Amino acid sequence: MTLSITLVVNGDRHDVSLQDARPTLLDVLRDRIGLTGTKKGCDRGQCGACTVLVDGRRVNACLSLALTVDGADITTIEGLATGDDLHPVQSAFVACDGFQCGYCTPGQIMSAVGLIAEGDAGTDPERIREGMSGNICRCAAYPGITAAVLDAQA
Ligand code: FES
Fold first, then answer.
1. Which of 4, 8, 32, 91 has the fewest Cβ atoms surrounding its Cβ within 10 A?
2. Which N-terminal stretch is annotated as signal sequence (predicted)?
3. How many domains does the chain have?
């Protein structure tokens, strides 16, 4: 039985047919819709590379069945910039060297955008580190990431 869902991704509506209930939001975003900015790291909820916003809340796309977010408003890293103008959090990551290899960066940025939008980032570096603790950086660019979250709120 084919299942049909509708996702609104970065403001664009996508009607997606699924052969069964198993595809994750991450796989649908990358393989069906073609938005590969959202990264697959661990594929089991441990690294945060797949972070997107679902109805404004941070979600690990690898842990979310696409079927469960039918009708949701989803924001991915591709939806942040406006033309050539980076989102303030993206600009802050550039200004503060909040990355090294860059693989985790889309998830880090989406998590930072969500954290700030939740009004829970604050200006205490320890609090920011706690708020961003679901996002792992194998290069350990954490000082720059924390600085970027601070800078984006300045
Ligand atoms: Fe989803 Fe690692 S790929 S948390």
1. 4
2. none
3. 2
